Amino acid sequence: MSPHDDGAGRTTEQTRRMADSSPAAERASVRIRLLRTVPELQQAEALLRAVWNTPDTAEPPLALDVMCALAHTGGYVAAAYLGTSMVGVTAGFRTVGDGLHSHVAGVVPGMHGRGIGAAMKLHQREWAAEAGLSSISWTYDPLIRRNAHFNLHRLGAVAEAYLPDFYGPLDDGINDGDESDRLFVSWPVHATPRAPEPLPDLDAAVRVLEPDDGEPVLRAATGDVLICATPADAEALRQRDPASARRWRSAMRESLGGAMENGYRIDGFVRSGWYVLQRKEMPK
Prior knowledge:
The structure is a single chain. By secondary structure, this protein is α+β, with helices and mostly antiparallel strands. It has 2 domains: about 10-190, Aminopeptidase (3-Layer(aba) Sandwich); about 200-280, no CATH class. It contains 8 helices and 12 strands. A 7-stranded mixed beta sheet has the order 1-2-3-4-5-7-6, with helices on both faces.
C-alpha cells in the first residue's frame, strides 16, 4: 500500500477533503482524519485508555499493535480533533463479505453531547461507502441508555441479536466485574438509514422489565408490544453498587434477550430509558 493511499484507494488529499468537508464534523467543530503514524496511534491508544479508565497494568480497549496492523492493511482507524487536540477515536476492520465491523469508538470525558460521536460515525460510513462496503456493524452494552438512544434512534441502526457475555471477562476499567452482554447492530452504508418509525401506544405495552426503587423487576413477557427499562446510569451503578448492576445485567438478559430469542424485534428506544419491542410478523 502506498504511504499516500489510505487503503480504500484514496490519496491523502482525497482523504483530507473527505474529512474537512463533513457537515457533521463542521457542526461539532471537529476535524476527522485517518491515523497512520505510530505517534498518533500511540496517542489514540492513550485516549481510549482514558475513556475506559483503563489502568496501566491492564490491556487497553484496543492495543497499539492492533491499530498499527489495521492502519497498514486497509482497516479503519480515525480520530476527531478539536483544534490540535485529539478528542475521539474510532477503529474497525473489514468483515467476511463486504462489511466493516466498528470495534471501538470513544470520546474523551467532558466532550459528550457535542455531536462528536455522530460525526465520527458518519465519517466512518462515508469511508465505508467509498471503499465499496455495504454495511457497518458494531456492538454496545444494552444497559447504557445514552448509547441505545444514539444507536437505535439517532443513527437508525438495527438490532440484530442479543449476545450474552460476548467478550468474556473484561478488565478495561469500565466493565470490571461485569459480564459483557452486548447488542449486535447493523447500519446500511449505501441505503438511507431507516428513519425512526412512530412507536405504538406505550401505555398499552407490557412492561417486561421495570425499575422499582432503582432495582430491576421482571414481568411476564406476553403481548404484541413489550417495553424494557434500563438503569438511569449503568456505568455509575457498576461503580457504586456492583451487586445491583449484576442484577440489572441478569434481568436485561432474561427480558430483552429472551424476548428477541422468542420472536420479538427492537423497534425503537425512548430517551427516558425504554426499549420498545414488537412481535415479528410470521411468514405466511
